[in-house]
Prior knowledge:
Layout: H1 2-23, E1 28-40, E2 45-50, E3 60-66, H2 69-74, E4 80-88, E5 93-103, E6 128-131, E7 136-138, E8 146-152, H3 162-177, H4 180-184, E9 186-192, H5 200-210, E10 221-225, H6 228-238, E11 242-245, E12 248-251, E13 255-258, E14 264-268, H7 274-292
Parallel strand pairs: 3-5, 8-9, 9-10
Antiparallel strand pairs: 1-2, 1-4, 2-3, 4-5, 6-7, 6-10, 8-13, 11-12, 13-14
Amino acid sequence: MSGMMNRSRIAxxxxxxxxVVACQSGTKQFTLHGKVMAKDETAGELTVxxxxxxxxxxxxxxxxxxxxxxxxxxxxxGDTIDADLISVxxxxxxxxxxxxxxxxxxxxxxxxxxxxxxxxxEPVPDIPMINQDGxxxxxxxxxxxxxxxxxxxxxxxxxxxxxxxxxxxxxxxEDLVKTPDEYNKTHLLTISFDPKYDTAPVLRRxxxxxxxxxxxxxxxxxxxxxxxxxxxxxADAFGLEYFEEDNQISHSxxxxxxxxxxxxxKYWSTEWTAAExxxxxxxxxxSRADRRGVKG
Length: 296
């Protein structure tokens, strides 16, 4: 009896979800078929290598948000799946639901689910990188400032991924310019997954495009890459997933906030706004001043 009640309750919730989705402005539903390449339960994401999705996206490998955490637990890397892809707000928001696992034969050769390696409050290793000026930099160079970090590659063809990240960081940079005190207590760092292509000159051109060709902005916002070994160390430190396939780099969308002491303060994945990031960055910068003002 309890099993029947649970199934009835689940069916009712599913119907309710469909009603809610249908009522959202500009809602569209597509069918996705593909292979699960990675799973991140912490972020609630699946990275899927999928076929063409007519009317939405060509065949590629990319991460998708999954709101149903119970369903997410059932799917593993290596599985072939069919799923409903829900898109709202003109494709600005989208997620997968209603999974149907069609094959589990690839599980034994798949990579395990990923988890964040560094926990909140843990220090970041001082890994070397090369910035847009060809200068070697380290995370330790930014001690004393709160740092907002994101990860992109300049050839990214998906507007809602790397270009969105860089555009929103540009907005944050422009806002901070208006408050010199907090501008001097904060820093932005964009790290490329693609060191073979994203050399210093490429990163400089890319950065200038988001700085309105004002090179002085590089004093506040670095664009950097690392050699493949160090890039993997950085990815492991922050629990990032990325891999290259068909001349594209599939990667998780991660943003990390560091404290002025160089420790992890917060992670974001696909659900965030520029205003939220900026507020957290400012608060972290000012919290150091608050701590200095506290006498033991």
